[in-house]
Amino acid sequence: MFRRGEYHRFAGDGAPYVYLVPSAAVFRLDDISVAVLDALGERDYEPADLALSLAPRFPLPEVKEAVEELVRVRAIKAFEKRVPQPGADVTAASTPAVVPPPRKRVPLTTLVVNVTSKCNLSCTYCYEYGEDKITEASTKPRFMDETTARQSVDFMFAESGDQKMVHLTFFGGETLLNFKVLKSALAYARERGAELGKAVDVSLTTNGTLLRTEIIDWLVENDVGVTVSMDGAKEQQDKYRLFSNGMGSYDTVAPNVKEFLARKPRRPVGARVTLTKQNLDVVSIYRHLADEMGFFEVGFAPVTTSWQRDYAIQDEGFFEMLGQFKFLAAEYLEYALAGKRHRFSNVRDTLEEIHKGLSKSHPCGAGMGLMGVATDGDVALCHRFAGSDSHKLGTVTGGVDHAVQDDYLARHHIENKTDCSTCWARPLCAGGCYHEAHTRYGDTSQANLHYCEWIRSWTNTCLEVYATIAERRP
User: Fold this and answer.
1) pTM, entire model
2) N or C terminus: fewer CB in 10 A for the chain?
3) Which parts of the chain register pLDDT below 70?
C-alpha cells in the first residue's frame, strides 16, 4: 500500500514544492508528482489502483517512475497491508517506548563566558536578573576574575576535540564592565590557540553604553565581532532600556554606536532587538537601526518572560509581529532578486538552515556544541542558564559531567516531545528555546506551544522565499 508521507506543500514563484520532514529536503514537484500526492492526500492506495487512477492523465511508465522517486525521498510511505487475525483485538497493540538514537559526542565549538553579572542598565524585562530571573546574582561573584577566565579558555580548548576553529563569546550583565578581564582572556585565548594550532573567533554582546573610544580602538584592532542590544529609536529604546536612575539610554548608546560604525570595523556589527507587547513596530525599528544607524544586520526576538507580565507578547501580538516579519521578508526577497543585501537577519538565518537541510534533534546547540560559563566557573547549558545550579553541566576546572549531559540531551530529544510528533516544522524548530520553555512552563523539556502557529507560518514564508530565489536566481 501507499500512504502520504510527512511533508509540507508550498509554492515558490507559483511552482509547487514540498518540504520533506524526514530529510528536511526541499523538492520541486512536476505535474505527475503533484497528481500522485493529491491522490494520496485523499486516501491510501494499492499501487495498481493508484496507477490506474492517474492513467487517463499520464502515461503509466511516467507515473511509475514518479511514484518510485516519491517513495525514495519518503514523500510516500510504502507499507504492507496487514490482515488482522480473526478474533484478535487490534486496539490492544501496545505503543513501543520511544528511545532516542545513539548520540555521537559533539565537540564544543562555542563557549559563552559571562564575565560579569553586573549591569549599568535596569531593563525591566531582563531575563537574567529581571522579574523572571532563574538565579540570584548574589549567590555568585559579580565579576569573573582573571584566573577563572583563563580556566574557561583552557576548558574551551579541552572540550573542542579536533575542531580547528573555536568561538569564544563574552557576555554579561554588561560585558564591558569587566573590560580588564575580557582583554586578558582574549589575549590568552589567542596565545593558546596559536600554540594548539586552533583559530579563535571572538565576539561579544554589549548594551552599547560603554563603547568609548579606547574600547572601540581595541575592538577594531582585535577583530572582535560585536552585537549591540538595542530596541530601536529613542522612544522605543527608552521604554525599557533605562539606567538605574530611570534615565533612558538612547542618548548615550546612539552616539557610541555611530562612532563605532564610523570606524568601519572589518567584522560586521549587528543589532539585537527585544520585542515586547509595547514595542512591536518591527518595520520602523528596522528602518532606524539598519538605514539610519547603519548596522550591518538587525535581528529580532520576542521577550522571554512569563505570560503574566505586562510586557509579555500575547496571541494577537505574535500575529502582529508575524505580519511585520512577512513584510520585511518580502523586501528581503526583492533585494535578493536584485542582487542586493538586506539586513533582516531573521530571514537570512532561516534560509541558511533550510539550505543546509538542517534537521534538529534538539532546538539549539545548548549543552552540546555550545555551553555557558558563570562568573565562578560553573558550566551551564548556555549563557541564559549560567549560574543556575539546576542546569549545571560541570565546571571549567573539573570538565563536563557527561552523565548529566547525556541524561539532559536524552530527555530533551525531539523524539520525546510528543506535542511535536505531527508538526511538519519540527526539523527546524524542535520544540523551541529551552529558556523560553523554562520561563513559560517551568520545564525546559516542554515544547513552546504558545508560538507553534507563529513558527509554522514564519517557516512557510521562508520556504517560499527560498524557493522563489531558487526559481529566479538558481
Assistant:
1) 0.91
2) C
3) 81-103, 129-130
